[in-house]
Amino acid sequence: MLTLSEIKNKLLSIDKEFAIKRIVCAVQQYFRQVNAKYAVMGLSGGVDSSTTLAILTRALDTDRIKCLIMPHSKITPKEDTNDAVKLASQYGIEPIIIEIDEIADSFKRKMENSGLDMNKLAYGNTLARIRMMILYSFANSLNGLVVGSGDKSELLLGYFTKYGDGGVDILPLGDLYKTQVRMLAEYLGVPKKIAYKPSSPRLWQGQTAVEELGADYDVIDAILYAFIELRKPLEEVFEIQGIQKSLIQSILRRVFLNEHKRRFPFIPKLSPGMTIGIDWRVPRISKLI
To answer: Which single residue of 80, 92, 118, 190 could bond 45 by disulfide (Cβ 3.0 to 4.6 Å)?
Structure first.
């Protein structure tokens, strides 16, 4: 029978130096393949975006990295903005600060004038989508790629905004669980204050990941790791010692229900030949072109 501590030990046993070199190499290769000049990313002051920046500075010259800090004055803690500014400076990058209050509130008014009463979730997701629009405006204007900072835990849980922070060109941390990212952050020299800061998408005041998800990531990651990496059947995952079965069910339910966020938009198949997103998937870069 699996135990929580046993899974954690396996989860955190990754070769940090190999992981960094592998990601750096992949980023460099992808930028060469698509002939992109700039990496455009949002820097929030959280562990994921901070670790992404630390890796990008190893992959690309700093003059090719554009860091955008996009706070909402009524929602984003000043501490997060200050942490982001200091981290960018630590890597010799001048951040671009764009407050999104006016854009978000103008959009909200337009919706309300159309008869829609935007709730907290709708407004929060709007913030994420506004940030992604800003990032792509920079990327399109500068021949750049939008570099996302989502990790494997968030991708599996669907804990991101579709066409918001989920709408990016490359995800350097996409195969690392949150607890692995925290460990890597410290290894890369990201301040501990940031590396172990409680996770929050900051889409509304007081939002925290632990409150929404029902547990800390060290527990959530153990559940995901047992199911995804160790490929344990559901019956064994439900019996992990040290974790309540109800929490395991809740976490895995999120994984299954949010599959649509991880896929190309659904297309009903009509053609007897190749249907996009189902049968037909061209390699990123074809050698025939």
So the answer is: 80
